[in-house]
Design brief:
Blueprint (H helix, E strand, L loop, with lengths): L2 E4 L11 H8 L8 E2 L18 H7 L8 E5 L3 H4 L14 H9 L4 E7 H4 L28 H18 L6 E7 L22 E2 L5 H18 L5 E3 L25 H19 L4 E2 L1 E5 L11 H7 L10 E5 L1 E4 L8 H12 L7 E7 L14 H19 L4 E7 L21 H11 L2 H4 L4 H4 L3
Parallel strand pairs: 2-6, 3-4, 3-13, 4-5, 5-7, 7-8, 9-10, 10-12, 12-13
Antiparallel strand pairs: 1-11
Helix pairs in contact: 7-8, 9-10
Length: 453
């Protein structure tokens, strides 16, 4: 079977696009973007900022089982409560699914923070407890909860249970996206026709509000009793659907604009964390895994090459996104290898950076498209994902791999459980097996063996 890596461009407006739409009717996630000033600022030199350490990397791999640490994106608080905790009554229908999610023992949980949805007006602080209906685009079961505040309370219950069992787990990775309209610059540069205010850089006057968002989230974490040890300045800054424009003009050979914008945001986040949580670490990149650029987007290599030098040293850990697919026209691209090569080419502190794959998954042959259903498709998806995961497990620089997500979003179905939570698919069983197996046995594994019924 030929496998290919499907990158975030395949979403075609699905997936994270649901963030603000569902937040307004009751959920957290949105396909949006925005970023900082389009200025190439000199950032702090190597050794500054919040970075991970090799000791932390060894700790992440210390749990028996699949080599890289396991992470998960799931924004429904009803699914995040510990099965042993006294969860709100609205979460009762989710108990069997909570048990299945908890059985995976995720080391990390990725929390997507849509700033535009949380703070639509500049004079009102971000609303972290806005009601969420808990449905999957109207699909039952539902169960109302209070936004990010409730998600953190649920994660705190998992952290308490993990500590009681003497295990690490459910460390939060905060990933910001979505510029409020009042904070964004007007149209400029080489924009796509569909670019909105939420995908534009921040005006200089809005940078203090960005720092205030970070500080407010840190306060919320302390209030809910949950640490927020990892922070990402902006999601997919090389994709115009999250940060636009990518280039200063649409002329051939026009220079990149997005890397300097992202660098300013990274610097602002570093400053905010120095005040709000000096022990926190930053996760750089969260890059869409594009290996080819265009007038409207930057490849992984182009983005890393153009990033101001000081930004490279704000963290020793970088993140990239990639999805597994299969088909006769399968690409042989490898975003992880592309990111590693790009960082090595920059040298210095970048050359030793570790890699997290913070979005992965499989579904239809073209992930994110509607599933046809049936055993053949399910097994094909599982084998594609298993091949990808096994390859990454042999890369010593890959520290963590995140599944996007647990419950299927009907508009971007790559989850481990059906939208109605009635069944778990083969990808769930794959992850369960990988989490249970000793590392030595993985060398003898194959996608076919790992995806057996």
């Amino acid at each position: 079977m030929r496998l290919r890596l499907i990158l975030p461009r395949r979403r075609r407006g699905a997936g994270l696009r649901r963030l603000r739409r569902r937040r307004r009717r009751g959920s957290l996630r949105r396909w949006a973007a925005g970023a900082g000033l389009a200025l190439a600022l000199a950032l702090a030199g190597c050794g500054a900022g919040h970075r991970s350490t090799s000791a932390r990397g060894e700790e992440a791999r210390s749990r028996p089982g699949f080599g890289p640490a396991f992470g998960l994106t799931e924004d429904n608080a009803n699914l995040l409560w510990s099965p042993t905790a006294q969860a709100p009554a609205a979460a009762a229908p989710f108990l069997p699914a909570r048990r299945s999610l908890t059985a995976l023992h995720p080391r990390y949980v990725r929390l997507l923070v849509d700033w535009a949805a949380l703070q639509p007006s500049p004079g009102v602080p971000p609303t972290f407890d806005a009601p969420v209906d808990g449905c999957a685009r109207g699909v039952q079961p539902c169960g109302a909860y209070g936004g990010i505040a409730a998600e953190l309370a649920a994660i705190a219950s998992q952290q308490r249970a993990a500590r009681a069992a003497g295990e690490p787990g459910f460390e939060v990775v905060v990933d910001v996206l979505g510029a409020p309209a009042w904070a964004a610059l007007p149209p400029h540069g080489c924009e796509t026709g569909s670019a909105g205010a939420d995908a534009r850089p921040l005006a200089a006057a809005a940078l203090p509000a960005y720092r205030a968002l970070i500080e407010g989230l840190a306060v919320l974490g302390r209030r809910e009793g949950v640490a927020l040890p990892w922070w990402s300045p902006w999601n997919e800054p090389n994709d115009p659907r999250f940060l636009s424009p990518q280039r200063v003009s649409c002329e051939p050979g026009a220079g990149p604009a997005a890397p300097a914008v992202y660098a300013e945001l990274a610097r602002e986040m570093s400053r905010a964390l120095e005040v709000a949580d000096p022990g926190a670490r930053m996760l750089l990149g969260e890059l869409g895994g594009y290996e080819d650029g265009s007038a409207h987007r930057l490849s992984v290599a182009q983005f890393v090459a153009a990033l101001p030098a000081g930004a490279l040293c704000l963290s020793g850990t970088w993140a990239v996104h990639a999805y597994a697919a299969r088909g006769a026209d399968a690409s042989q691209g490898n975003p992880v290898a592309a990111l590693e090569a790009a960082l090595d080419a920059r040298g210095g502190c970048a050359a030793s950076a570790r890699i997290w794959v913070t979005e992965s998954g499989a579904g239809a042959p073209d992930p994110g498209r509607p599933r046809a259903g049936g055993a053949q498709e399910e097994q094909g998806a599982c084998r594609a994902l298993a091949g990808q995961l096994l390859a990454w497990s042999r890369d010593p620089r890959v520290e963590a791999i995140f599944q996007y997500e647990f419950r299927d979003d009907p508009s971007y179905p790559v989850g481990l459980a059906s939208a109605d939570l009635a069944r778990l698919d083969a990808d769930y069983r794959l992850w369960l097996r990988l989490r249970a197996r000793p590392d030595a046995n993985l060398e003898l594994s194959s996608p076919q063996a790992l995806c057996r019924a």
